[in-house]
Amino acid sequence: QVQLVESGGGLVQPGGSLRLSCAASGSIFSIYVMGWYRQAPGKQRELLAAISDGKTNYADSVKGRFTISRDNAKNTVYLQMNSLKPEDTAVYYCNARFRQLDYWGQGTQVTVSS
C-alpha cells in the first residue's frame, strides 16, 4: 500500500511558476513509476509527465515548460511548472504505478489567472 500526498498548488498569474510535491509513504518508493496527471472541469484526466529509472516522458502540452523529478531518498516526486497558462488550471494528481498496483493522491488545485 502506498499513500500519496500532493502539495504546492495555488493561485498564480499567467507566466508564473509553481512547484508541486508528492510525498509517498508505505512502500518501496523507488520501484514505482511516478506520474503527474491533471483534470480540468468537464475534461478527462490527462497524463502530463512520468519518471522511471531516470527516464522522463512528457505530454506535448507541457513539454519544455514542466519538469518532473524525483528524490528517492525523500520518497518524493516533484513537478516544476513554468510559463503557466490559464489553460493549465486544473486539479493535479500524483500517481504511483508498479505492475498491477496503481495509487493516486487526493489532488491539489492549480489556478492560473490574473
Description of the molecule:
By secondary structure, the protein is mainly β. The chain has strands spanning 3-7, 10-12, 18-25, 33-39, 46-52, 55-58, 66-71, 76-81, 90-98, 101-104, 108-112. Strands 2, 4, 5, 6, 9, 10 and 11 form a seven-stranded mixed β-sheet that branches. A four-stranded antiparallel β-sheet has the order 1-3-8-7, with no helix packed on it. Strand 9 (90-98) and strand 10 (101-104) form a beta hairpin.
Write out key terms for the chains shown:
mainly beta; 7-stranded mixed β-sheet; 4-stranded antiparallel β-sheet; 11 strands
Count the E strands: 11
- What low-confidence regions span 5 or more consecutive residues with pLDDT below 50? none
Q: Report, as a whole number of angstroms, the end-to-end distance.
A: 40 Å
Summarize the amount of helix as a percent range: under 10%
User: Which sheet architecture does the biggest sheet show?
Assistant: 7 strands, mixed
